[in-house]
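ok trying again, last paste got cut off:
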Amino acid sequence: MATQLSGEQKAAILLKAIGEDAAASVMKNLDPKEIRRLGAFMNATANITREEESIVIDEFEKASASGDVTFHGRDYIKTILSKALGPEKANRMLESMTSKVYPGLDAMKWVDAKAISQMIKTEHPQTISVILAHMDPDQAGVVMVDLPEALRADVALRLATMEDLQPSVLEELSDALQSSLVASAGTRATSVGGAEATANILTTLDKATEGGIMSKIAERDQLLADTIRGLMFVFDDLIKLDDRGMQELMKEVSKEDLPVALRGASPETKEKFLKNMSSRASEMLKDDMEARGPMKVADVEKAQQNILKVCRKLEEEGRIVIAGAGGEEALL
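nice, full thing came through this time. structure:
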């Protein structure tokens, strides 16, 4: 029986064998999709026999273990996910692992974003918004940019105001997508989309596209636009980091990205970075910025997005804490 175990099953057995702390360290280095697949097996498995454990350990470390290994189901996976990602992200990840799976929608995450844009651009805006809600923000952002301009704001508005969808609706859409992609369960409505999902997607877009979409949303629903804007985390929000958090961030950002990104930052944000550097480093950075001369807006925005990705990674690792763009509290 043990020889029929899949790669995810063997990895899950190994993580249980090495203990919570070591398992959490491993989880930190996994892709979200890998965590979801691995966690789904750990969450659903009750017991692992000694034979299965021994074979897996032998494969990885040529070592044997003693006794049966018992998974503690949801409690165990929640514990190690919390250690790896923090309580809030762990809860979201666990919810996604235990929610009903719609293969067609899930398969879209593995398809090139531009190919998806071509596939869905003639669909109804509501259908497109449901599809985007099931994607990672970066991928959904690329799809959004490739949609006809007249369609973007309508899709974003529907995404932000989306309510729970019945399983039958999602199943029908999933089946249609699955057959199109050649890519298959619950009685409870599934929550998708919302203002937060919209904010996450919009922060991946260039400022001109994001501004155009937000202005259209504001025309139709100013309160919703304010809510989305409050949830968006942009480069100038880095000023909310305290000095320790800023110093931690600067250890990890690319020395090439920083002078480019600061070209498009507010004076306050520039000062925040500079005051957390040594006098010598600060002067070198200023000289670097001046020496580069005029720069393309697209290059500046790309450098800012690279730094924001580093910032989110540090947050996931628990090294800094990021409040929402509308947050009032200082970050640690």
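cool. The beta strands are 47-48, 69-70. The chain has 20 helices and two strands.
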